């Protein structure tokens, strides 16, 4: 995310004032409730988590490839450096294929995370990466290619299958009703980067619907839709207006992160950065964690263990097939060895008082 610029702030506030008159907005948490909730959490530090042996969300959540042993091992790596929360993507196809089994596996995941004292932020929808998806065995990753099999949810299929919106409504409602009082769930991230990968305004119907569906359930956890691009003015205004807790993405340097924090603090709500840490962009743990801790901004980097998603490789066409000298994202090898031991020592030092 490019930080929200101060020059856009007044315009955003004006739009938010208009949005606040809608009925869905009446159910938004008050600032006091949001801050009271946040004070109970401690400083939130974590990662976007997909187990290293899953190439995408479906491979993580389908019965045949849901791997509790790997999840337990790798969440143990996170707990060992003081991380206390994970952001985890769901996919509606796993629910459609097996609703009760899917929810059972969510319970299993939450039980494992809970044993490591890790809370979870689940993500429902996503406009990023691949449009084509199907249940069953997932294709192998493309060699040396960043997120080569990551899936949109629902992607362009929402345009060609009008009844899919009804399915998504049942899916979101079923999951939220099942887990609405679960204290192991930190919050619900309703939609990752709406409008991305060329979707633009086509993302509006689902974005507005998922907010309405979530507001129709009496949740004990907050909801959020993270902002990620400052020139998406209308999206930003709506997402900020509908979020109980403000979340955002920023993969740029420390000056950019400082600007984002400064502009978003004016909304007087807790802040969690749900995606950051891109080493080639000068987005480092050493430069960003102290700033976020000082400002009590939650810090959730991408990602945890380098594996089949290959997000340690740079985005774009690979020039070579060997692992990069400087990892793009991720912290650990699959055996628990850190990419950079100075990073894990630093993270542990930053989190030890929490």
From TrEMBL:
Keywords: Signal. The keyword Signal applies. Residues 1-24 form the signal peptide. SUPFAM superfamilies: (Trans)glycosidases (SSF51445). This is 1,4-beta-xylanase. It comes from Chitinophaga nivalis.
């Amino acid at each position: 995310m490019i930080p929200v610029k101060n020059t856009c702030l007044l315009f955003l506030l004006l739009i938010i004032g208009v949005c606040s008159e809608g009925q869905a907005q009446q159910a938004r948490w008050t600032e006091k409730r949001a801050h009271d909730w946040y004070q109970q959490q401690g400083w939130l530090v974590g990662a976007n988590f997909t187990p290293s042996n899953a190439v995408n969300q479906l491979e993580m959540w389908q019965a045949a490839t849901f791997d509790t042993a790997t999840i337990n091992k790798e969440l143990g790596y996170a707990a060992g450096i003081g991380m206390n929360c994970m952001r985890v993507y769901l996919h509606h196809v796993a629910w459609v294929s097996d609703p009760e089994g899917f929810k059972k596996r969510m319970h299993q995941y939450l039980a494992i995370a809970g044993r490591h004292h890790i809370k979870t932020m689940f993500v429902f929808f996503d406009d990023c990466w691949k449009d084509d998806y199907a249940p069953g065995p997932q294709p192998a990753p493309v060699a040396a290619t960043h997120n080569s099999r990551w899936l949109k949810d629902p992607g362009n299929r929402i345009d060609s299958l009008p009844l899919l919106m009804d399915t998504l409504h049942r899916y979101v409602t079923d999951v939220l009703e099942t887990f609405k009082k679960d204290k192991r769930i930190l919050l619900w991230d309703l939609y990752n980067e709406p409008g991305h990968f060329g979707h633009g305004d086509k993302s509006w119907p689902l974005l507005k619907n998922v907010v309405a569906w979530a507001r129709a359930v009496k949740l004990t956890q907050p909801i959020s839709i993270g902002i990620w691009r400052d020139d998406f003015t209308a999206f930003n205004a709506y997402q900020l207006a509908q979020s109980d807790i403000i979340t955002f993405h920023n993969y740029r340097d420390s000056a950019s992160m400082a600007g984002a924090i400064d502009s978003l603090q004016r909304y007087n709500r807790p802040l969690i950065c749900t995606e950051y840490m891109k080493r080639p962009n000068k987005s480092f743990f050493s430069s960003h964690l102290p700033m976020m801790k000082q400002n009590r901004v939650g810090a959730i980097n991408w990602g945890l263990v380098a594996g089949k998603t290959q997000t340690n490789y740079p985005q774009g066409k690979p020039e070579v097939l060997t692992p990069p000298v400087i990892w793009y994202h991720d912290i650990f090898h699959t055996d628990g060895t850190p990419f950079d031991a100075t990073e894990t020592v630093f993270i542990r030092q930053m989190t030890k008082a929490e």
